[in-house]
Hints:
The protein is of the alpha+beta class and 275 residues long. It has one domain. Helices cover 40% and strands 17% of the residues. The protein contains 10 helices and 7 strands. Helix 3 packs antiparallel against helix 7. The radius of gyration is 20 Å and the shape is globular.
Amino acid sequence: xxxxxxxTKFVETNHKYHQIVGVKSDKEFRxxxxxxxxNLNKCLExxxxxxxxxxxEIYEVDEGTTIGAPFRCDHYAKIDDQHVIFEYNxxxxxxxPFKIHTDKRKNKVLKNPEKNTLIKKGSGPGVKYIIFKIPYxxxxxxxxxxxxxHDQCLLELKKSFFSEDKYTKAIKALYNTDxxxxxxxxxxxxxxxxxxxxxxxxxxxxxxxVDEMSKKYPSIKHQIIHSxxxxxxxxxxxxxxxxxxxEKFQEWFKLEPxxxxxxxxFEREKKQYKF
Length: 275
C-alpha cells in the first residue's frame, strides 16, 4: 500500500526491495547482500579476484615522525604490485567541512610515499596509494561497473578488471539477482541526506563526480535525477527538501530523464507501489 505519513503528509515508501529480489526480510538482505554500502568488499573481491583488507590504518609522517591519529582506509589490496585503496564516501563527505578538509589531507598523504607509513612509531617506508572513491548515492548498474572497473582501472592501474561474467557474479552477491534490470538505481530513494543538505564544497564534489561519470555513461546522470524527481513528488513537491537553491545545481537539474536509461529499480517509482 502507498503510505502517507500523518505528521508530514509525505509518501513513505512501503514496498520492500528485498521482496523484488526474493529475500525474506530487509534484515536478511542487509546481512547477506546489502548493495554497495554494506558489501563493497565482496564486490571488490569478485572483480579483482583477490581478498581486500578492511580498515587499513595509515599514519602521516612529518620530519621523520608520525603525527596524530591514523587515517583509516576502508578497503586495501596490492594489485599487480600497486597499492590500491577503495573508499566508500558516505553523506558526511558532502556535508561536513571538516570531513572534506580531512579528505583533502588524506589524499595528499596517501599519494606521497614520503608522507605516509604503516608504522605507528617512527617512519617506516611509505608507498604511493592509488585511491578509488565510491559515492554513497551510487549503485552497481552495469554502466557504473564499467566506469569503475574498466575505465578508471585502465586509467589508474593500466588494466581493465571488468567482464560480463564478473558483473553477473557481483550483482548476485550484492542484490541477489542476475538481472541487471533489478539492480537498485543510483540516486537517493529513502535517505534524508539529500543534496539540499550539502555545503558548497560538497555540491562541487557531487556535480564534478556525476558529470565525470556521465560523460561516457549518461544513464548515471539520468537515473540520479530521476530518483530526485520521484523524491520531490513524494514530499509534496517541496523541492527545497531535496535539491539546493544553487544556480549550478539548478541548471544541472533541468535535464529530463529519458526512459531508455531508467532500466533499474527506483524505490519511489509508483509502479512499485501496491495500491
